[in-house]
Each structure stands twice: as C-alpha cells, then as structure tokens.
Amino acid sequence: MITIENKEGLEYLETIEDNTVDLILTDPPYITSRESGMNKWVEHVKKQDSPESLDARDEDSWNIWVKANTAKLENRTQKQVSLMKKNFVKYGSVYGKKYARKTDFGDWDKNFTLQKLELFVSHFYRTLKKGGTAIIFFDWKKSSFLIEMLEKKGFKQIRKIDWNKTNPQPLNSSRNYLTNAQEVALTAVKGGKPTFNSEYDTGIYEFPTQAGKNRIHPTQKSLLLFKELVKKHSNPGDLVLDPFLGAGTTAIAAKELKRDFIGCEIDETFYKKSIEWVEELS
C-alpha cells in the first residue's frame, strides 16, 4: 500500500491515528534560504549573460591568473583551457556559471520555523508505535534545537547519522572545505525496543546524490541512502510515514522494500512528479 496526498504536513498528520506508524523517515525544510555569497554570484552570472554586459576580466588578468595557477592547468587539454579562459574573461571565474546555485529554496523553506518543526515532532511521537523510530534530516547547525525538541516530547536513544556524499558539488569551496559534502540526520525512538537490522553500526553512510531523470527536487536525498535506512529501521509490511515527501524518495524506498507507505507533499508540482515516479514502478 502506497498512499500519497497533496496536503500540508500538519494538516495531514492530524488525520493519522495514534500509535500506528513503525518508521518516520523525513526531510523537513532546513530553514536556510538566505542572501549569501553564492546568491550574489548567481545574480552576477545573470547580469553577465545579458546582451549589454561587458566582460568581467581582460586578457592581462587572465595571464596573471595563469601564472598564479599553473598547477590547475596541468593535464588540461587545449580545449579545456580555452573554455576556462572564456569563462574567466566573461564571468570572472574559470568555472563560469557551472556551479551558480542559489541557497534560496523558495517559500516552503522561508516560511518554515523551528516552532512549526516542534509541532511536527509532537505528531511524530503521537503517531509512532512504541519502539517506533523517527529519522529526521536537518541543518547540522540547528541540530541542538531538534535534540531539545525530541527530548522534550519523550523520545529516547537519540543518535546522529552522517551522509557523506560521494559526488558533492564544489560550492563556495575554492579556499575551504566543501560546504555541502555532508548532511546529518537524527534518529530517535519512542520508548521500547526499536527495530534495528544491523550491529555495531557507525551510522556513517556514503552514497552519491540523486541524479538523472528522477532528480526533481532541489534538496532531494539519495534513494540508495533512504533504502538503506528503511531496511535497517523497519521490516517488510511495516508502515513508513513522510509528511515532507518532496520528490517521493521515501515512498519509492518503502515500495521497493515491501513496506507500506503513507505521506504527503504540499507542493502540487512535486506531488504530481512523486506520483509519476511511484507509478513507474507499478
């Protein structure tokens, strides 16, 4: 059974009975949409793409860059160097607009709050069976707030898991660590003995980000990752819930592993695409 509705999460959770869910696997908004250096870079790229724009750099600037970055040009073909120069002159960066990605994910992220997240956590505890597990992906900088919410509602065995991306985009990172190479989630249990089909587990997962035609959401998680989590924290026939379904990843993982699924997505476009993805497997 796979049931997906086009509905706001809290409204949807009001319809779920107490003590009926085995696993909640979800990815709420991280509340990270903001004006950042990358957002300014995106606007710069748009400006440089306009017909009336002037080149950001000149030939002399390119020559200075080449002298200072000989190592970056090693083993590059003439065609690659030519493209780097073209990007450098037009945009001011050898990468051009390849990695111009905004950190503004839209109203669904801007309008979400920690206060609203706490309401979701209350429903998570109410709807889970005794021994049921909630796995919540969230911004690592705000994880302490989420831990406090989980403890306040009565959750036990709170643990952190790490997703190390094997193919992260090099955003904001030419002079520091990659900002988006890792994401974290917290797991929490509603009392009792949880389902955990593993032993001596480090909670560290290495999977690529979702790619291809089924990459339909800006913050979409890896299907391989979610299948591994569903496999470890539930059994065939169990009921899995996700009130922030997005592209449909949790539903697909549940379906492929013979779990039942219920969930919702507030955005109509993503809702329809998630339905299409599920139907492809039918």
Describe what this molecule looks like in 3D.
The N and C termini lie close together (11 Å). This protein has an eight-stranded mixed beta sheet with strand order 1-8-7-2-3-5-4-6. It is elongated and about 70 Å long. It has eleven helices and eight strands. The chain is 38% helix and 18% strand. α7 packs parallel to α8 and α9 packs across α10 (249-256).
Task: Give structural attributes.
18% strand, 282 residues, Rossmann fold, alpha/beta
Question: What's the short story on this structure?
Answer:
The chain is an alpha/beta fold and 282 residues long. It contains 11 helices and 8 strands. Helix 7 packs parallel to helix 8 (143-153).
Task: Compile the SSE list and pairings.
Elements: E1 2-5, H1 9-13, E2 21-26, H2 37-49, H3 59-68, H4 70-73, H5 78-91, H6 107-110, H7 114-127, E3 128-138, H8 143-153, E4 156-165, E5 182-189, E6 204-207, H9 223-233, E7 239-242, H10 249-256, E8 260-264, H11 268-280
Parallel strand pairs: 1-8, 2-3, 2-7, 4-6, 7-8
Antiparallel strand pairs: 3-5, 4-5
> CATH superfamily assignment of the largest domain?
Vaccinia Virus protein VP39
Structural class of the secondary structure composition? alpha/beta
Largest sheet: 8 strands, mixed
Briefly, what CATH class of the largest domain?
Answer: Alpha Beta
CATH fold node name of the largest domain: Rossmann fold
Radius of gyration: 22 Å
Unreliable residue stretches:
none
CA distance, first residue to last residue:
11 Å
